[in-house]
Design a protein that fits this description.
Pathway: Cofactor biosynthesis; coenzyme A biosynthesis; Cofactor biosynthesis; (R)-pantothenate biosynthesis; (R)-pantoate from 3-methyl-2-oxobutanoate: step 1/2. InterPro entries: Pantoate_hydroxy_MeTrfase, Pyrv/PenolPyrv_kinase-like_dom, Pyrv_kinase-like_dom_sf. Homodecamer; pentamer of dimers. By secondary structure, the chain is of the alpha/beta class. It is 41% helix and 14% strand. Strands 1-2-3-4-5-6-7-8 form an eight-stranded parallel beta barrel, surrounded by seven helices. The protein is elongated and about 80 Å long. The structure holds 3-methyl-2-oxobutanoic acid and sodium ion.
């Protein structure tokens, strides 16, 4: 069972690999490929729940999906995302919700979309034994504030603010930091400046690791962000398999004899 300390040790030696997963079979595939970490991201809202943002995702959603991922993995560190408004408003509720992800769902760490308001919370959670992955740059739970899913840290002021918050969260005890949709040179400088691993998404090649949304990687969606790379074509694969099944049923080709059985000694039922 890998720990957050293994992730910290790996940084700088070898790239750290991470993908999201929201169910057991996908998590098992991530583990079979030997990735370091799996993120049960609130991106599940867009990726598999049919919402057009992450805002409607609930604690119950993340607990349920984290449970599925945790049951399917043994050698992959499971990080669960804290959904919108499950943290940050009151310390007591934040601690209770983070605790559920470890106690009820089987995560080994939580991820928080960060700002000034999460520095103290990171200290509190880590002091209590709940490892924290911080997340800066584009924080999609702030979409209404930001006005869109736009690049962050593109000016000297905003890049310096991300660096300042990165240092504050590292000092508060975060074990790693996701940097989303920031310029590669900004991510490189932050990676140099802090002593915890950075995990980039749309943040260039110089972070300590990379994360992507698994449905983008597998090609299951109609749209994916320009910084993602599609490695599979599962949407087409699903559509053709399902269409073939429908056709077989309509043609009488399914079920065939090998898919059905007859009880020989059974009398007529009436
Ligand atoms: O929810 C998510 O998948 C994330 C990653 C994009 C980092 O936060
Ligand atoms: Na997220």
């Amino acid at each position: 069972m890998p720990t957050v300390q293994d992730i910290r040790r790996k940084a700088g030696d070898e790239p750290i690999t991470m993908l999201t997963a929201y169910d057991a079979p996908t998590a098992a595939a991530v583990e079979a490929a030997g990735l370091d970490m799996v993120l049960v991201g609130d991106s599940m809202g867009n990726a598999v729940m049919g919402y057009d943002s992450t805002l409607p995702v609930t604690m119950d959603d993340v607990v349920s999906r984290t449970g599925a991922v945790a049951r399917a993995t043994e050698d992959t560190l499971v990080v669960a995302d804290m959904p919108f408004l499950s943290f940050g408003a009151s310390e007591e509720a934040s601690v209770e919700n983070a605790g559920r992800l470890l106690k009820d769902a089987g995560a080994q760490a939580v991820k928080l979309e960060c700002g000034e308001h999460t520095v103290e919370l990171t200290d509190t959670l880590t002091s209590l034994g709940i490892p924290v992955m911080a997340h800066l740059g584009l924080t999609p739970q702030h979409v209404n504030q930001l006005g869109g899913y736009t690049r962050q840290g593109t000016t000297e002021d905003t890049a310096s603010e991300i660096l300042r918050l990165a240092e504050a969260h590292a000092d508060a005890g975060a074990f790693s930091l996701v940097l989303e949709h920031v310029p590669a040179n900004v991510a490189a400088q932050i990676t140099d400046a802090i002593d915890i691993p950075t995990i980039g998404i749309g943040a260039g090649p110089d972070t300590d690791g990379q994360v992507l949304v698994v449905t983008d990687v597998l090609g299951m969606t109609d749209w994916s962000p320009p910084f993602a790379k599609q490695y599979g074509d599962l949407k087409a694969e699903m559509e053709s398999a399902i269409a073939e099944y429908k056709q077989d049923v309509e043609n009488g080709d399914f079920p065939a004899s090998e898919h059905s059985h007859t009880a020989d000694d059974l009398d007529d039922l009436y």
